[in-house]
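dude i think i finally got it to work??
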Amino acid sequence: MTDWMRRVLESKRAVRERLRTLSFSEKVELLEKLRERSLAIARSPLRQSASRKS
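look at this
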């Protein structure tokens, strides 16, 4: 395993551990922020023009 891959996996473990320690309400708040970002991306003119080209 390369050093880069080892760092990636350790980072993923750290993020999972941080998420595991969040309270339920903090997890819900995080999901709400992710949903808002997803909707903003979907509304983006760049995203809409890219989908029309397909």
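DSSP finds three helices and no strands in the chain.
im so relieved honestly
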